[in-house]
Amino acid sequence: xxxxxxxxxxxxxxxxxxxxxxxxxxxxxxxxxxxxxxxxxxxxxxxxxxxxxxxxxxxxxxxxxxxxxxxxxxxxxxxxxxxxxxxxxxxxxxxxxxxxxxxxxxxxxxxxxxxxxxxxxxxxxxxxxxxxxxxxxxxxxxxxxxxxxxxxxxxxxxxxxxxxxxxxxxxxxxxxxxxxxxxxxxxxxxxxxxxxxxxxxxxxxxxxxxxxxxxxxxxxxxxxxxxxxxxxxxxxxxxxxxxxxxxxxxxxxxxxxxxxxxxxxxxxxxxxxxxxxxxxxxxxx
Length: 285
Known about the structure:
Helix content is 33%, strand content 18%. By secondary structure, the protein is α/β, with parallel strands linked by helices.
C-alpha cells in the first residue's frame, strides 16, 4: 500500500492509476560513515519544492502537464538495514509491476541497492548510470558489506562487468579505482566528458540512473554528509542529466544524499528540489 504525505512534491499529485512516474522517499542514513542527516532529506525537499515553479524554462516543460504521484515516505525500522532494503525493493517492485517509473528520494546512497534489486529482477539486462563524488566500490567498510561506501559494489554483484558507468568521481580508496580500472566498471573521474560515448554503448538497454548530489561542488551544495571539493556545477549536472534521460531507457532512478541540517541557508535543499523537478521533466518523453 502506498503511503501519502500531508505534503507532496510540487506538481506531483496524480492518483496512482493515472501516474506514469511515482516518487517515494527513503529517509534512511543508518550506514553513513561521516556526518548523518540524510534521513531528513525527503521531507525537507518536499517543503522547499513550493519555492519552485512547476515550469522549467530550461526544458520548456511543466509538471502540471505530467502525471506524477508523490506516494510518500517509507517508514523504516531502526537498526535493521536488511529490512530497510527489503522495504525499498518491495515499493519499487510494486511501482514497476504497475508499468510506472519509480523515482526514489534518499536518504543515504545505500538505499539505491534496494531499488536496483527490484529493477534487476524486472529487467535482466539492467545497466546503471551513476553520478557521484565517490566510487562507492569498497567490498566492505569497517567489516560491513552493506554501506553507502559499498553500494555500487553490491550493485555490481547483481549486474556484472560492463554495465555500470560512473561519472564525476573524485574520491575513493586506491583499490576501488584499481578495481574499476580492471574493467569491472567504466569510471570517468571529475566530470561528464565521456558520457555521450557511454550512452551510445548502452543503446536501448534498460537503465537505472542514480544521482548522489555530492557530485556537485560543495560551494553550490554544502548540505551533504561527505562534501568533496572539485565537483561539477549545477548547469553541468543539469545538461548531463537531461542527456541521459532523453538518450536512454531510464526504467528507475533516484536522487540521494541531501543532508539539509548542514546548510542552514537552505540553498542545498532548494538546489535538490530543482534537480528533482528537472529530472522528472526530463523523463517525460
